[in-house]
Design brief:
- The protein has 396 residues and is α+β, with helices and mostly antiparallel strands.
- It contains 11 helices and 11 strands.
- The protein has helices at 2-18, 23-35, 37-47, 54-62, 65-124, 206-214, 233-241, 300-316, 318-325, 336-346, 359-362; strands spanning 128-136, 141-152, 155-167, 170-177, 188-190, 219-231, 250-256, 272-274, 281-282, 350-358, 371-381.
- Helix 1 crosses helix 3, helix 2 runs parallel beside helix 5 and helix 5 (65-124) crosses helix 9.
- The model is unreliable at 53-61 (pLDDT under 50).
C-alpha cells in the first residue's frame, strides 16, 4: 500500500516537471512541496537528475533553471519559517508554563518564608518587632524585606531591616541594623538551680536602679527584669500589678524557659546571662490570635496556646527555621523541636520580661524582691502621651 502511494506521488512529480499538470494541480503540488520536507527533497533530487531513468532527467530539463530554483527556494524557506514558528512556539509555551509555575510556587513559598521570618524575629530578639514589609515573589528567586522596630515608651523606633532571600530552595536571612550595629543592653538572668542570695546578685540590679533614680521625671525607658523563679502569664500580671498600674507601663516581651538555655554557656559565679540570639521568648502583641480580640490582662491560656501553636508550626518547617535562624540565633541551630518538646512537657513559664514606660514608674519595681536582675535599655524624652496625629516618611 505504501509502495503504490510512493509510485503515485513519483509519477505526479514527473508529470509536474514535464508540464503535464493543469494550473490547479500544479499549484496544489507546489503547496505540498512547501509543506512536506520529504516531497521537497525528492523534487530536488529529480531536478538534479538523480532519478533512476532517462525520462526523469528529461522531465527535469523541461523546467527552466529559474523555475527550478524558485520551486526549491520557496519550499525550503517555507519549511524554515514553519520550523522557526514551531520552535518559537514550543519555547514560548515552556516559558509561559515556567512563569506561571514560578509565580505559584513563589507565592506558596512566600507565605511560609514570611511567617517563619516574623516568628524568628519575635522569638529571638527581645523588644524587637516586625513592622512594614515588601517582597518579590518567585520560585527561582524571592526576597522579603521587613522593617525592625523597637518600642521605647509609647513610640516605636526603626532599628534596621531584615532581608530574607531564597534562590531555589536555598534560604538565608540577614539583619541590617541601623548604622551597621545594634547595641545590646537587654539581658536576662536565667534561674539556675544554684540559689544565690540577694547580695550576690545585687550587682545585676544596682546600676539600673541608680541610673533610673538620676534620670529626670520627663523620660521613658526600656527595662529588662528577671525573676528568681518561673511564672505563668497570670502570675506575672499579678506580680507586676502590685507595683505598677497596667496603664503606666507596657510589657513588650517575655523571656521563656525552653530547656536549652543551659547549653554551651559559661556561668558567671552561678549567674547565666542571656541576650538577643541566646534568650528565647515572645511578644504577645505579635502573636496571631485569629479574628477574635484578646483582653489586655487576661486569657493567659489563650496566649500560651497561640505561642505553642506557632512553635509547632516552626517544627513543621524545621529546615526553613534553621536557615533563617542562622542569622538571628547566634549562628546556631535554634533547636526548635527540642524547645517545643520541653514546652509541651513543662508548660510556658516566664522568667523575665521587657517593659517600657515612664522611667519613674518602672523604678517602682525596685521594691520587688523576686527580681534578680535589671538591665536598663534605651532612654528617651517623654512620649507616653500619644499625640493626636503623627506619621513617618521613608526614602525607600
Amino acid at each position: 500500500m505504501t509502495n503504490n502511494s510512493d509510485d503515485s506521488r513519483e509519477q505526479k512529480l514527473l508529470a509536474y516537471l514535464r508540464g503535464e499538470l493543469d494550473e490547479r494541480e500544479a499549484k496544489k503540488l507546489e503547496d505540498d512541496v512547501a509543506d512536506d520536507e520529504e516531497v521537497t527533497g525528492r523534487l530536488e533530487r529529480l531536478l538534479l537528475g538523480e532519478g533512476d531513468g532517462e525520462s526523469q532527467t528529461q522531465a527535469a530539463q523541461t523546467l527552466s533553471d529559474e523555475k527550478q530554483r524558485a520551486i526549491i527556494r520557496r519550499g525550503k524557506w517555507k519549511m524554515r519559517l514553519t520550523n522557526s514558528v514551531y520552535t518559537f512556539g514550543i519555547f514560548f509555551l515552556i516559558g509561559a508554563v515556567l512563569l506561571i509555575a514560578n509565580g505559584w510556587i513563589g507565592s506558596w513559598m512566600h507565605d511560609d518564608l514570611f511567617r517563619v521570618t516574623k516568628d524568628m524575629v519575635n522569638f529571638s530578639q527581645p523588644g524587637v518587632s516586625v513592622g512594614s514589609s515588601g517582597s518579590q515573589v518567585g520560585a527561582l528567586y524571592g526576597q522579603i524585606k521587613m522593617e525592625l522596630r523597637e518600642q521605647v515608651g509609647a513610640e516605636e523606633q526603626n532599628v534596621g531591616f531584615l532581608e530574607s532571600t531564597n534562590f531555589l530552595w536555598s534560604v538565608r536571612a540577614e539583619p541590617k541594623w541601623a548604622d551597621g550595629i545594634r547595641e545590646t543592653k537587654l539581658f536576662f538572668r536565667y534561674p539556675t538551680d544554684e540559689k544565690m542570695t540577694e547580695e550576690e546578685t545585687a550587682y545585676l540590679r544596682t546600676p539600673a536602679w541608680n541610673t533610673m533614680n538620676k534620670l529626670p521625671e520627663g523620660t521613658v525607658s526600656q527595662l529588662a527584669v528577671s525573676f528568681d523563679h518561673p511564672l505563668t502569664y497570670d502570675d506575672y500580671q499579678k506580680l507586676i500589678s502590685r507595683h505598677i498600674f497596667a496603664y503606666n507601663a507596657e510589657t513588650v516581651w517575655f523571656a521563656i524557659d525552653t530547656g536549652v538555655e543551659l547549653k554551651d554557656h559559661d556561668q558567671d559565679g552561678g549567674n547565666l546571662l542571656l541576650s538577643a540570639g541566646e534568650v528565647w521568648g515572645y511578644a504577645e502583641r505579635n502573636l496571631d490570635y485569629g479574628n477574635a480580640p484578646i483582653q489586655v490582662n487576661g486569657e493567659g491560656d489563650r496566649r500560651t496556646a497561640t505561642f505553642l501553636a506557632e512553635m509547632k508550626y516552626l517544627t513543621e518547617h524545621d529546615q526553613l527555621t534553621r536557615d533563617i535562624g542562622a542569622g538571628l540565633v547566634s549562628h546556631r541551630d535554634p533547636e526548635i523541636a527540642e524547645r517545643y518538646s520541653y514546652l509541651q512537657e513543662k508548660g510556658v513559664r516566664i522568667y523575665g520580661a521587657v517593659l517600657t514606660g515612664p522611667t519613674k514608674e518602672l523604678l517602682k519595681l525596685q521594691a520587688e524582691k523576686s527580681i534578680t536582675a535589671a538591665f536598663l535599655g534605651k532612654v528617651e524624652w517623654w512620649n507616653w502621651d500619644r499625640p493626636g496625629a503623627s506619621g513617618t516618611q521613608y526614602s525607600w
